[in-house]
């Protein structure tokens, strides 16, 4: 689609007040297309994935640093470039791209997120979509994949080290297991999940799946170089740590000396990891209920909010 044929308005999901997604998220048939800055591209959205930060933002957890309402939720996107800003060098009209469109998750995220027909994003936040992945698969990756990668980098993780992943079947956890095993060359990967998700952990590369409904990871005789906490068990995590090891967590408030961080998005991470998806060493993990159609975004959020999703919840196709 050429830039000259773009409409002035589009369909999008929006909310005008804070509250539960089932109560405040509405389908809007006429939202103005976002303006494209010099360093941005306009994306015709093909797929979007949902993250817990989306509904927490909707519920007003971050209202002190949020963008003005009404807003369209959605951080993760996959789609086709339909317009480029004057300073954009990496992409051209027609390129298939994916990424997390917000540089800082909690600092004034974009008013028009990815649950819309079109969204705009800076080129440095985006990467070329791997040819081997569908739009739905690509959309499932950016925020959680980059979070998994950054956490491992912050611990200085490297070949031969062991790791315990708390919450191994979730969006971030499924990537931590795969990255640790298939990219970094971990000596041993352990991970926690509920009984029915243990087989998934094995398939992802976990050497020691731990059923948290039947055993406490902190009681294991074995200790680990790194514990990656995705579920908020930071205090217990230190009991599973080797001397000199490191705990990293993505769940505030953390528990010093654990490393707590909030992702700063970088499309270069996606570009770096693209070959691992092309080769099949890394795989996107979509919940079996995914993808939800665009018309069922409210149902998709309701499912995500149960905390029972395995991998990612994706909305696709977007008209």
Mind sketching the topology for me?
Layout: E1 9-14, H1 21-24, E2 26-32, E3 40-50, H2 52-58, E4 76-84, E5 96-100, E6 118-122, E7 126-128, H3 135-139, H4 142-154, E8 162-166, H5 171-183, E9 188-193, H6 198-204, E10 208-211, E11 224-229, H7 234-237, E12 241-249, E13 259-260, H8 267-279, H9 297-304, E14 313-315
Parallel strand pairs: 8-9, 8-11, 9-10, 11-12, 12-13
Antiparallel strand pairs: 1-2, 3-4, 3-6, 3-14, 4-5, 5-7
Gyration radius from CA atoms, angstroms: 19 Å
- Helical residue percent band: 10-25%
Number of strands: 14
Distance between the termini: 14 Å
Average pLDDT for all residues:
96
Low-confidence stretches: none
Q: Structural class of the secondary elements?
A: alpha/beta
Q: Which band does the percent of strand residues land in?
A: 25-35%
